[in-house]
Write a structure and sequence with these properties.
Length: 411
Amino acid sequence: MKFNDLALAAPILKALEKQGYTQPTPIQEKAIPILLKGHDLLGVAQTGTGKTAAFGIPILNHLCKNKSNGKGRRKIKALVVTPTRELAIQIAENFTAYSQFTNLRNAVIFGGVKQAQQVKNLRNGVDILIATPGRLLDLMSQGHITFKDLEHVVLDEADQMLDMGFIHDVKKIIAHLPKKRQSLFFSATMPKTIVELSKKMLGKFERVTIKPEQATAEKVEQGIYFVNKGNKSKLLVHLLEERKNESVLVFSRTKHGANKIVKKLEQSGIRSAAIHGNKSQNMRQKALGDFKMGKLNVLVATDIAARGIDIDELSLVINFDLPNVAETYVHRIGRTGRANASGIALSFCMAEERPYLKDIEQLIKQKIPRLENHPFMEDHDAIEEASVKKPVKAGPKKRNYSRNNRSKKRK
Ligand code: AMP
């Protein structure tokens, strides 16, 4: 299927062409025709699958073809609610790119910064509002926002909203929306509370599921290093020194851990920055900006801060710690190998993390190759035998992911 087959408005097609999108990703192929018909949608998919365009294109297409209110101030006709500031900004950037040849305008609002500029943008009139829940509710309660003319609502990363404690705010927001609307609900996982919320929010809906293992296993080359806790930093420095010009995202399970990693890297002369919830919004934006521009090659992030970070040409993800929830591994490695690109994800595993590795391999239904070509080798056979009842067949020996020389262009 091609975008041309979807009968989209000419300015949208032109923008997609400019973005270099030739073919819809699987979620776009499934979701766009449903949404163009005006139906509600439940999308079970994670960031990195192209889901922003999957909901953005049909919404923009509809607004572009139905310019009913030419006169007076613009009214908010579409609302996207998303859990983090980084995601809100990225979604707004995508909407701006896809609507660049239309006269549709979007605005983004999120907490952690002064509200004055955001209120000013709203006063100027917007067609599409992208918001995090807390600031959205604040501005609604101050009377800066009305949804009388709203036609589309998207709830993005619903499970993450739940994890971050936003679920009540989200319910309050939904209660203020017109009943007649198109509703879209996206979540990477579907725990019970999320299923209930989706039932409340959606009318008669269609469901589209993109399995995480489809998104990752096929495109991302993965590898595991067995290493002692005390040697993890040394191994990281060793790997980064081999890949001086690549953009590398390093995951830490904790904020404190992320700070410690940055300190160690700096001691070895590797410039890096941490992004996590204890960093101010300005610091996070600066770190992300420097990383995207290539001023910084290494970003160390916690899961919540990194969720949804969208960086073109992110060639390598390193899991300094293995996550204790297997799905998180899938989210993390989804930061590389986005849309139609390929990527590499390397993980460190100390003895205590071996059960996490087992869960991950069960989820992704594959054994991650064991990598032995490093100076800080743990006796992994001993670890495997000690922690697994039935020893599994050893992976390929002496596997080596050589540096790849991707272009340095980043988004
Ligand atoms: P998302 O899941 O929305 O965060 O998208 C992940 C990345 O895929 C973003 O960098 C998009 O710009 C890119 N992308 C989305 N759709 C396509 C497409 N059809 N072809 C190529 N890249 C795409």
